[in-house]
């Protein structure tokens, strides 16, 4: 240490020298040596730089180097981020992941192997051919399933999500577009027409019966009542007695 020690230092130093920089730091700051050319300069920082970890002591807080393969660490034996070419696993930096694990090149960590998972098959679709369900005898029907978990790099790949099989249906002719609707409309109109016809016939029948009844009543009112024929035996009896 250069003997020229100063108390009026800059940059968080409590004590310093012109040759070595900071010799001690103000409270809560970390002391670290930075190499500049052939010499090291002491600096005081609020947190340790990359490749270092901090330790606190009663008299001074220091930054110590992580292991050579570790980029950032919590302690010397527990790494939190590895340098390029290494994979993090349980605080250590490894060139190759253990069995049962795979290297994740995105996070540079050893992770569990994930296999593909799919849902259950859907029901079979109607038998179709060229997008139609009529006009043919042999067609195809399909069913599908969804991928619910995509696999990792070393996981089992996903199976097929679509299946198809041949099917046979009773041949039927395809109705022209709008023909089915037209037939239903014609049937409805015909039904309404028949109902109206029956209603008119019933109305005519009731009117005819009412007219006949009224005519009979009028005839009964206009015709004179018939006189009762005399009893011949009663009329002849007095004449025979007188004779």
UniProtKB/TrEMBL annotation:
It comes from the Eukaryota. GO terms for molecular function: heparin binding; signaling receptor binding. Residues 11-110 form the R-spondin Fu-CRD domain. It is found in: Secreted. Its main location: secreted. One of its GO terms (cellular component) is extracellular region. Residues 175-219 have a biased composition (Basic and acidic residues). PROSITE patterns: TSP1. Activator of the canonical Wnt signaling pathway by acting as a ligand for LGR4-6 receptors, which acts as a key regulator of angiogenesis. Upon binding to LGR4-6 (LGR4, LGR5 or LGR6), LGR4-6 associate with phosphorylated LRP6 and frizzled receptors that are activated by extracellular Wnt receptors, triggering the canonical Wnt signaling pathway to increase expression of target genes. Also regulates the canonical Wnt/beta-catenin-dependent pathway and non-canonical Wnt signaling by acting as an inhibitor of ZNRF3, an important regulator of the Wnt signaling pathway. Interacts with the extracellular domain of FZD8 and LRP6. It however does not form a ternary complex with FZD8 and LRP6. Interacts with WNT1. Binds heparin. Interacts with LGR4, LGR5 and LGR6. This is R-spondin-3. It comes from Illadopsis cleaveri. The lineage of its organism: Eukaryota, Metazoa, Chordata, Craniata, Vertebrata. The gene is Rspo3.
């Amino acid at each position: 240490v250069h003997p020229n020690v100063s108390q009026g230092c800059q940059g968080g130093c409590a004590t310093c020298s012109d040759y070595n920089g900071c010799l001690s730091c103000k409270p809560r700051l970390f002391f670290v040596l930075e190499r500049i050319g052939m010499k090291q300069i002491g600096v005081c920082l609020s947190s340790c730089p990359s490749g270092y970890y901090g330790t606190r002591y009663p008299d001074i807080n220091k930054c110590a180097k992580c292991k050579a393969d570790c980029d950032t660490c919590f302690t010397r034996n527990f790494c939190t981020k590895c340098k390029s070419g290494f994979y993090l696993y349980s605080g250590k930096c490894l060139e190759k992941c253990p069995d049962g694990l795979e290297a994740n090149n995105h996070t540079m960590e050893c992770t569990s192997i994930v296999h593909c998972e799919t849902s259950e098959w859907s029901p079979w679709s109607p038998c179709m051919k060229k997008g139609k369900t009529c006009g043919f005898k042999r067609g195809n029907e399909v069913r599908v399933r969804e991928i619910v978990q995509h696999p990792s790099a070393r996981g089992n790949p996903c199976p097929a999500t679509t299946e198809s099989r041949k099917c046979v249906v009773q041949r039927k002719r395809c109705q022209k577009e709008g023909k089915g609707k037209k037939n239903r409309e014609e049937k409805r109109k015909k039904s309404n027409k028949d109902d109206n016809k029956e209603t008119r016939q019933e109305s005519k029948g009731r009117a005819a019966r009412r007219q006949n009844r009224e005519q009979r009543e009028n005839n009964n009112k206009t015709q004179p009542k018939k006189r009762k024929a005399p009893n011949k035996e009663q009329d002849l009896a007095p004449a025979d007695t007188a004779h």
